[in-house]
Amino acid sequence: MNGRIRGQLLKGTTTLLVLTVLRDGELYGYEIAQRIRDRSGGALVPSEGSLYPTLHALESAGALVASWRDGDRGPRRRYYKITSGGLGMLAEHAQEWVAFSRGMAGAVGEPNQ
Question: Please, which residues bridge with residue 28 across strands?
């Protein structure tokens, strides 16, 4: 494998990843994808086809608020900011992830467990 995670595995984690990077401050779509890629060492690279539907769903759920801003050198950009409800959702998703990753580690028999 080339170090990148297959799309179906990434799909289930996009909400957690987006909320995690937005906890640190407002970002627009491309910046969100870059932060996820950078933090994962290139293993996680969300596509536009998964990132933007997730952003829109989180905004509809009240986990994010968004605003349009003029770009420094280019088109307007939609910036996303996590809400207090989004922070609660992040805590829930993080707990689920910990339980899931422990279960998977046990199920696949990772060495040194």
Answer: 79
